[in-house]
Amino acid sequence: MEMRTADTASVLGQWPDGGERDKLHTMPPVSSGGAAADALRRPAHAINPTSRRQIEIVLSRSVGGIGFIFALQTLPAMASQLDDLKPGWGPFLAITLYSSVALVVVCTVIQVGIRVACTIVSAGYLAALLAWPALLMVPDAVLQDKPWLWYFCSIATSCAALAFPLRWAAVYAITAPVAYGVLRLTPAGGHADLLLAALDAVYAILLGQVVLIIIVMLRQATAAVDIAQSNALRKYAAAVRHHATELERVEVDSIVHDSVLTTLLAAARAETPKEAELAVTMAARAMARLTDAGVPVANDETVIPFARVSQRIRHAAEAFASPFVVVEKNVDMITVPLQASDALYSATVQAMVNSMQHAGTGDITRTLTLRSNSRGGCTIEITDTGVGFDARAVPSERLGLRLSIMERMESAGGAVKLRTAPGEGTTVTIVWPRPAESGPDTGVIGPAHPGADDPATGVDR
Fold first, then answer.
1. Distance of CA 374 to CAs 7, 127, 309, 371, 434, Å?
2. pLDDT digit string (tens) for 365-391?
3. pLDDT digits (tens, 9 = 90+) for 2-49
4. Radius of gyration for the alpha carbons in the chain, expressed in angstroms and rounded
5. How many whole angstroms separate alpha carbon 351 and alpha carbon 162?
6. Residue 42: which of 329, 234, 315, 271 has the closest Cα?
7. pTM check: above 0.70
8. CATH architecture assigned to 302-461
9. Can you name the residues that pair with 426 across neighbouring β-strands?
10. End-to-end CA distance of the chain
């Protein structure tokens, strides 16, 4: 029993009315110029451009598929003009252009060599336009219809939009139609009048520029999405680091308050050998707790039965000089995360310590209630019929309630409700998990026994 008493004292601390000795300077918040802020100021760029890759796949396959359909539509015109070309050159030209379009389709399906294949189509088409007059059987003869190369113009400009940088793609989208327009003015191109040749060239230019604009806009939009996603991930990582730093600060401050300072105060007030031995034991326990604080926290998915936490709390309550009346309801039905269980235990026993130290003397009833709540979590109430106090008058440097109980539970995903008033006793309600509606009401101070349901605390009275 003596060891158990020493263990409880070392873990929870004995916080006397020590005036200036009660003050504790907490760790400063993370500076805005720290690593988190540096991460937010880095140049924006996409870490993993998923959207850009996806849109490139869609664009390339669209150009390949539509280009192949356009190429099939040229077959009748191509077949009708084979006799107008020199023997062997007509089939060679047709096989070259059609096979290059087929190569684009294959490359877009396997997503390999797309730029090279599109470059082959664009360059091959421009070369075919330039060589067309020399390939005719009779160079000076007037072609009866427009050259079948006309139907490949949109395919070539679309492939150029995929393969070339923006500036060169825009130049090609003008150059190829203009070259075709010039060809239309010659006998090899049908000897069309200037207006008809100009209309064909302008139509091809407009179509090529529209395709280029659509591709550029989609690329820019997806690049912006990727950058925004990367920035969001970077900010989230910085927020996680900041949150981890804040949790560590709360944990260190709680340990210093609950163990280290209490041990020092107990050692300073030790007057008998037994008190000195207790101070030594408390110091050893405080050192052990500081060592344990450096051990990595278990995975968030690790859960334990709340009955184990309840048993630890019950043993701690029995160790006080004036034991608490312990009431347990449905505690066997609950599981809690390991990190939350530590916070529940420490916050509960700190509340009991505060009751022992500040509730006053005389005939005081202290009750400890542990039960399940409607959200699948737990609710713990520490109630006494003592003198109570005006919580708004407590100096900010007194950290027992604010740091060791409220901030500790908040960092573990819970909430704390305080009900007290001078002469009304004190009730501390600890709830896990935090109720959705508890934000503005958590920590509200009022009469210790309001006698009504209080949804802010998550307590089902």
1. 34, 77, 19, 10, 12
2. 899 999 988 888 999 999 998 888 887
3. 333 333 333 333 333 333 333 333 333 334 344 444 443 444 455 556
4. 40
5. 69
6. 234
7. no
8. 2-Layer Sandwich (3.30)
9. 384, 420
10. 35
